[in-house]
């Protein structure tokens, strides 16, 4: 076929049926080729349609090595892909690794579109999420926004059962689940399940999921203090709701990607931060062992998933191994506030915001003096009194250039 300077990569979308039918244009391309590529399953589906003399390049291993192999061929290639190559597909990988190569795509329905068609679900409002080789973060964020229709690409660690279990654990029970298995194949199956049914469902390895909202679920920005589990014998050891809401505002989390809650205790600040800003990477750091279970219970009770809990002494952490925060709340410091601030400062970037609440004059003075010496801008001091509690100093420091 074409020489390297005219190299074209043809991306041919196929379904799950052996010997798929193609348009005349694609059929001519398939018959005329020599170099072909795709996954093992794709080869099984199209092998009989390829010329007797052909060379197949399996898509496996490191993508950089595979792309180098493509480049070395000095000819054009036909790559078979599932559905639409630019819907979480191999076309996106090629655009990233071979940006100057000419790509020509011949897509077909992706699996979520196919499932919608087969069940006659209008998908103009579909919000798609891929959990295939990815963490839970995006699904957590989407569920928090109460979308009416969510499509999910799954894998073995994020199966329909795992998805349903996670949703039920965090109280997200206002969806029903459609599971499409081996769509387009001879053994196709589509099941409509309640989440409790889905939590025990054994799906075929090739599947996708639709979540259809059964009723709207609008969450409050915060919950009353008495809905949080606290340390045994210390029911008042929680940042009160009015103060939590103020802290979330002062932390400027709308500008942040990562937030650290140091001395998290019950996790109340971390939870409210995540409720307001589902996109945030939230790390709750607490050294008391019993707080691990308390924070997890509160996350579930408050229907807030996606918070990373680290039970460890902050002073023993290698902070360089964690994503750099743009916002930090100091909820506890073990009497070593100056040391904590200096240790933290080494990893904070310009513009980072640090907030602390204290009733102690000594902590107030240490915060102001230490951040002042480290070239931070300090906001005007605020004092807050809630009910019959002590006066609370609300402190904010922002790192300068």
UniProtKB/TrEMBL annotation:
Keywords: Cobalamin biosynthesis, Methyltransferase, S-adenosyl-L-methionine, Transferase. Pathway: Cofactor biosynthesis; adenosylcobalamin biosynthesis. Gene3D superfamilies: Cobalt-precorrin-4 Transmethylase, Domain 1, Methyltransferase, Cobalt-precorrin-4 Transmethylase, Domain 2, Vaccinia Virus protein VP39. GO terms for biological process: cobalamin biosynthetic process; methylation. The keyword S-adenosyl-L-methionine applies. Transmembrane segments: none annotated. The keyword Cell cycle does not apply. CDD domains: Precorrin-6Y-MT. Signal peptide: none annotated. InterPro entries: 4pyrrol_Methylase_sf (IPR035996), 4pyrrole_Mease_sub1 (IPR014777), 4pyrrole_Mease_sub2 (IPR014776), CbiE (IPR012818), Cbl_synth_CobL (IPR006365), Cbl_synth_MTase_CbiT (IPR014008), Cobalamin_biosynth_MTase (IPR050714), SAM-dependent_MTases_sf (IPR029063). One of its GO terms (molecular function) is protein methyltransferase activity. It comes from the Bacteria. NCBIfam families: CbiE (TIGR02467), CbiT (TIGR02469). This is Precorrin-6y C5,15-methyltransferase (Decarboxylating) subunit CbiE. It comes from Aureispira anguillae. The lineage of its organism: Bacteria, Pseudomonadati, Bacteroidota, Saprospiria, Saprospirales.
């Amino acid at each position: 076929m074409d020489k390297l300077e005219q190299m074209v990569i043809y991306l041919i979308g196929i379904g799950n049926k052996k010997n798929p039918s193609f348009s005349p244009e694609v059929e001519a391309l398939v018959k005329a080729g020599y170099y072909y590529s795709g996954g093992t399953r794709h080869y099984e589906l199209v092998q009989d349609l390829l010329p007797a003399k052909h060379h197949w390049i399996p898509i496996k291993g490191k993508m950089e090595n595979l792309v180098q192999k493509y480049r070395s061929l000095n000819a054009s290639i036909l790559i078979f892909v599932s559905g639409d190559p630019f819907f979480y597909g191999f076309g996106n990988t090629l655009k990233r690794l071979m940006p100057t190569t000419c790509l020509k795509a011949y897509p077909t329905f992706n699996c979520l579109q196919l499932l919608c068609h087969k069940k006659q679900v209008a998908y103009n409002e579909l919000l798609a999420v891929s959990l295939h080789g990815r963490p839970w973060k995006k699904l957590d964020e989407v569920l928090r926004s109460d979308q009416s229709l969510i499509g999910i690409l799954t894998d073995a660690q994020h199966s329909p059962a795992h998805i349903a279990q996670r949703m039920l654990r965090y109280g997200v029970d206002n969806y029903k689940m459609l599971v499409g298995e081996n769509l387009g194949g001879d053994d196709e199956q589509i099941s409509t399940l309640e989440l409790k049914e889905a939590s025990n469902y054994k799906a075929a390895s090739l599947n996708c999921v639709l979540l259809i909202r059964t009723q709207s679920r609008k969450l409050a920005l915060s919950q009353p203090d008495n809905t949080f589990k606290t340390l045994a014998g210390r029911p008042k050891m929680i940042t009160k709701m009015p103060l939590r809401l103020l802290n979330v505002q002062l932390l400027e989390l709308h500008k942040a990607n990562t937030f650290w809650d140091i001395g998290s205790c019950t996790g109340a600040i971390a939870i409210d931060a995540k409720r307001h800003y589902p996109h945030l990477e939230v790390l709750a750091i607490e050294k008391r062992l019993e707080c691990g279970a308390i924070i997890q219970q509160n996350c579930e009770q408050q229907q807030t998933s996606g918070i990373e809990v680290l039970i460890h002494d902050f002073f023993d952490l290698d902070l360089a191994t964690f994503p750099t925060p743009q916002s930090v709340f100091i909820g506890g410091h073990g009497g070593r506030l100056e040391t904590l601030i200096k240790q933290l400062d080494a990893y904070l970037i310009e513009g980072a915001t640090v907030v602390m609440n204290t009733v102690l004059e000594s902590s107030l003075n240490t915060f102001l003096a230490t951040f002042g010496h480290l070239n931070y801008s300090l906001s005007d001091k605020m004092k807050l009194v809630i009910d019959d509690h002590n006066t609370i100093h609300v402190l904010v420091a922002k790192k300068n250039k």
